TrEMBL record:
InterPro entries: RuvA_2-like
Name recorded for this polypeptide: Uncharacterized protein
Protein origin, superkingdom: Bacteria
SUPFAM superfamilies given in the database record: RuvA domain 2-like
Organism of derivation: Gaopeijia maritima
Amino acid sequence: MAHAPSVDALDARLKDFVEGHIHGWGHDDWHTLVTELAEAGYDVSDTRDLGLRLERAHILATLERLAVPGVGAKRRERVADSFASLWHLRQASVEQLTALPSFHRALAEALHDGLARRTGGF
């Protein structure tokens, strides 16, 4: 019996996909990704969950590229836990960002400004 790929391996594949599509992706790209994952032995029956994992990878990769001082790995994780997609994160107000654990107003403003300046290319 074949061993199913791990969740960590799936997250790595999704991160690779996001990094290869920094300007976004369309339906055909999504379909190709799902097909490739299925062929590699991943369970792709829950495409909603898969899509949420992909959006999380998108948020994490974007925040890493933004490189806002003070927003390290732990804070990036908190942000990704709090927003369903990069679109939702970009729509967030400074007040919503300040409400995140360990985000003070200056840090929230820096993240908000960074996201506003980087409307394309992610």
